[in-house]
Amino acid sequence: MDYVIEMLHIRKEFPGVVANDDITLQLKRGEIHALLGENGAGKSTLMSILFGMYLPDRGTIKVNGKETAISNPNVANRLGIGMVHQHFKLVEPFTVTENIILGGETRRGMMLDIETAAKRIEELSKRYGLNVDPYAKIEDISVGMQQRVEIVKMLYREADVLIFDEPTAVLTPQEIEDLQKIMKNLVQEGKSIILITHKLKEIKAVADRCTVIRRGRTIGTVEVAETGEAAMAEMMVGRQVTFKVAKTPGSPRETVLSIQDLSMANNKKPEALKRFTLDVRAGEIVGIAGVEGNGQAELIEGITGLRPVSSGRIAFHGRDITALKVRDRIRQGIGHIPEDRQKRGLVLDYTIEENMILEVYSQPPYSKGGLLNRLAIRKHAEHIIKSFDVRSGEGPVSAVRSLSGGNQQKAIIGREIEQDPDLLIAVQPTRGLDVGSIEYIHKRLIEHRDKGKAVLLVSLELDEILNVSDRIAVLNNGELVGIVNAAETNEGELGLMLAGVKKGEGTA
Ligand SMILES: Nc1ncnc2c1ncn2[C@@H]1O[C@H](COP(=O)(O)OP(=O)(O)OP(=O)(O)O)[C@@H](O)[C@H]1O
Question: E strand or H helix at 467, and its extent?
Fold first, then answer.
């Protein structure tokens, strides 16, 4: 059998946890091989081993049939293994070409020849259908295009094996389609791909085979064409998963959040959000749908107080909070699951229990007479860890940095929901979560609503918006296109609204 990569019986232990416990993954030449597993199952660890960032405690790695020790990422690069990370590693003010040749040419003592490099980038771009402009500046191009720059960077360095780590998490639906085409072009040209993703639909759309791991162990490798989404989900979590949440119609009451004529600027546009008006009531979930960059980030920054408003008014329980400080808004009962968990959600070097009290540490029972009540803090953290299934090596005292991405996310969601805010703002709450965790988080959002609280859900996933919300407000280019009842709309109608077509305008 023609395998480009074989990882055989890999074991890797961290304090308190066996992240990889006898994992075997064999990648055939020219295939797209999905790697599927719950949050914390050990996918990133396995890929870090392949990329030379960790050495395995046990097991063998073969590249093109030859046993190899991959002691650092440079060795991985030399062996033709490249990785597109979730967080791009690009220098914003530099051009595409400058970013791609950064570090490479000078080390070999060659003169920097931008033009030759740009030409090669153009050729690669054409050959694989990437459409990358070698002279564009990174800060001026979309997230989807930045990802393509990362792909060209690997091709430029002659990578044969490409690892994609949750590549679609940051992309729009159109960009996802384009990326899938690109991945197919890549394998047609002889490259081999490992795709880490939680999205079963995407596995069905592009992958040839799929290896499923659970709690550090290989469960099996399946042919994707012969395996249904439900079967893959069940292999992964060890039980059946329902893909649609059970939800009764909401019974909205008084207005909790009232936004009137809100305009917001951002670093690039004076009117990133234009005269936006919306009420969110107790006992309802309002979804904000929109393609990334259409004003949702600014709207949330306005409500939470992270960015000053240009004009307009925000009222919470009838009181004007437009000029209130962030901390005071939290005290009044506004909870926020932020979009960027590492920048705004967590202090990575603090433990789980310290992160669980960031907003309330000075209040009883966590603080008494100016001293922290360690016992109360521990109990609170343990409750969240248990309810939200936050997996870590050492429980409440694990540094948050050591948690897998999905488990960091579950910890933030747990913290915000358990604070029981009157208004919960959830921005992309399930990004990076496995299907089992998504099912649970959706249930908790609906329970929060059913307790009579208001929920504002911002998501790029139309499925999520449609399944969880009661009403949906659609944003396009900073403007409210319309508000529809979730029960009376569908993906088609929302898709048109996302493009700016108002309800009733039609396309006939
Ligand atoms: N550097 C580290 N130190 C300590 N523990 C770690 C470290 N890296 C990972 N772990 C632990 O190893 C386990 C596997 O984590 P890993 O990041 O590989 O999971 P994953 O499958 O990629 O999860 P996700 O889907 O959430 O990204 C987790 O329990 C995590 O807490």
Answer: helix 462-468
Q: Structure tokens of 217?
A: 């162990």
Question: Is 410 touching ligand 1 by the criterion CB < 6 Å?
Answer: no
Q: What is the residue with the minimal CA distance to atom 6 of ligand 1?
A: 402
**Residue in 12, 194, 402 to alter for ligand 1 test, most ligand atoms within 8 A of Cβ:** 402
Pairing of strands 81-84, 161-165: parallel
Q: What ipTM was predicted for this assembly?
A: 0.98
pLDDT for residue 507: 43
Q: Report CA(46)–ligand 1 centroid distance (Å).
A: 9
Q: Is the CB of 197 under 6 A from ligand 1?
A: no
Residue 287 β-bridge partners: 457, 472
- Mutating to test ligand 1, I would choose from 55, 404, 413 the residue with most ligand atoms within 8 A of its C-beta, which is 404
Mutate to test the pocket of ligand 1, among 12, 17, 49 (most ligand atoms within 8 A of CB): 17
**The pair of three-digit structure tokens given for residue 358, joined into one six-digit string:** 């960031």
How many angstroms does the Cα of residue 330 sit away from the middle of ligand 1? Answer: 31
For the whole model, what pTM was predicted?
Answer: 0.85
Judge contact between 248 and 447, C-beta under 8 A. no
Beta bridge partners of 288: 458, 473
In 3D space, the residue among 131, 144, 147 whose CA is nearest the CA of residue 175 turns out to be: 144
Tokens read off for 259: 């936004």
Two tokens, residue 455: 């929920």
Residues 335 and 425: beta-carbon distance below 8 Å = yes
> Closest residue (by CA) to atom 2 of ligand 1?
402
How far is the centre of ligand 1, averaged over its atoms, from the C-alpha of 440 (Å)? 20
Rounded to a whole number of angstroms, the CA Rg of the chain reads: 24
**What distance in Å separates the CA atoms of residue 418 and residue 413, rounded to the nearest whole number?**
8
Asked if residue 365 has a cis previous peptide bond (ω within 30° of 0), the answer is: yes
Which residue puts its alpha carbon closest to atom 25 of ligand 1? 39
* Alpha-carbon dihedral 218, 166, 198, 412, rounded to 10 degrees: 110
Strands 209-214, 471-476: pairing is unpaired
Name beta bridge partners: 211. 35, 221
Q: Are strands 273-281 and 209-214 parallel, antiparallel or unpaired?
A: unpaired
pLDDT in tens, 261-281: 999 998 888 899 999 999 999
**C-alpha–C-alpha distance, residues 410 and 419, integer Å:** 14
* Ligand 1 atom nearest 408 alpha carbon: 26
Q: Whose CA is nearest to atom 16 of ligand 1?
A: 42
Give per-residue pLDDT as tens, 208-230: 999 999 999 999 999 999 999 99
Burial 37-57 (b: 16+ CB within 10 A, else e): bbbbbbbbbbbbbbbbebebe
